[in-house]
Amino acid sequence: QISFFAGQHGTVARTRPGKGRLRCPIHFIGIVAVDPSSPFTGGAVLGDRVRVGFHGHDDGASITLYGYGKPVILDSGMFTINPGPYRTYFVGRRAHNVVTVDGLTFDRTARTDVRWKRQSSTVFELAVKSKPYAGVTAERRVTFSRRMGYVLVDDRMAASTTRTFRQLWHLRNGSSPTRSGARTWTRAARSNVLVVQVIVPSAARIITGATSPIQGWVSYDRDEKSKAPVLESRRAGTKGRFLTLLVPYATTRPNVSVSNVKLSAGAYALTVTINGRRERVQAGYTDSKITPLP
């Protein structure tokens, strides 16, 4: 795995996450990945672990995000090794932080290719591309601000015919999320996240503990599961795009705004303001920059 810790002053260090590792004062962003030089995975990065037989989860390109000691965007876990509907759910795409496609079966042999990795003193960015479903191309671009600790996720889907795309963010159980317009935020005692949908979806809802179809569950131990909220956003068409801002915070929800948004087919630019601190994000075709603003 590859993971990134952001310290108090925006420094980033690589490490392997494990018990007792979540001690950073600000944020931890974990991007599921494997060794790009591995002969077993063909160089897949950012969560294409389904190619490793002993793992078996359909979590290619999934993201987990930790803030202030706890997960705020989390993996749903394993629950059980016994065949059945809940096993199918927990290892499947809908239990992970990805974009799913209605009416199609995930291709477990699909390759996730790295388009680029970019980093500087202010930004770390990773972009991947795959064909997870028949006739569908998925592109995900993850941009992390090393100075202010937020994450921007640009998901772009293209299909050969009209499809319904669903972007999923799995939130921690007991976090009591609230939605208002294009914003969703959690209200746990500590370790929270604000989700801002920069491109407003056609529809969005929070699902918790649903059984038909199964959605909104988390498992921390074998044969144990708990209801947990999932933010589901939906778009339909031959193309679907989701541009999402994730802002972790401890207890008090920050004052966040997104302004001066400019979108193009494979790029975007916008200004993020958090509690009076501002940055201009320019996610271009050939370069990516985050510039502090006065």
Summarize the structure.
It contains 1 helix and 23 strands. It is an all-beta fold and 294 residues long.
How would you sum up this structure, described in words?
2% of the residues lie in helices and 53% in strands. It is built from one helix and 23 strands. The strands form five sheets. Strands 6, 7, 8, 9, 10, 11, 12, 13, 14 and 19 form a ten-stranded antiparallel beta sheet that branches. The longest helix is centred in the first third of the chain and has 7 residues, at 85-91. It starts with a strand and ends with a strand. 42% of the residues are buried.
Q: Could you give the topology of this structure?
A:
Blueprint: E1 2-6, E2 12-15, E3 27-31, E4 63-67, E5 70-73, H1 85-91, E6 99-101, E7 112-119, E8 123-133, E9 136-145, E10 151-170, E11 178-180, E12 183-185, E13 192-197, E14 203-208, E15 210-211, E16 214-215, E17 217-221, E18 224-227, E19 229-249, E20 256-264, E21 267-274, E22 277-283, E23 288-293
Antiparallel strand pairs: 1-2, 1-3, 3-4, 4-5, 6-10, 7-8, 8-9, 9-10, 10-19, 11-12, 12-13, 13-19, 14-19, 15-16, 17-18, 20-21, 21-22, 22-23
Which descriptors apply to this entry?
294 residues, mainly beta, ten-stranded antiparallel beta sheet, 1 helix, 53% strand, globular, disordered N terminus
The largest pleated sheet is described as:
10 strands, antiparallel
How many beta-strand segments?
A: 23
Q: Tell me the radius of gyration.
A: 18 Å
Unreliable spans: 1-54
Distance between the termini: 37 Å
Shape: globular
pLDDT averaged over residues: 83
The residue fraction in helices comes out at: under 10%
What structural class do helix, strand and pairing data support?
A: mainly beta
Q: How many distinct helices? A: 1
Strand-residue fraction?
over 45%
Give the SSE string.
Answer: EEEEEHEEEEEEEEEEEEEEEEEE
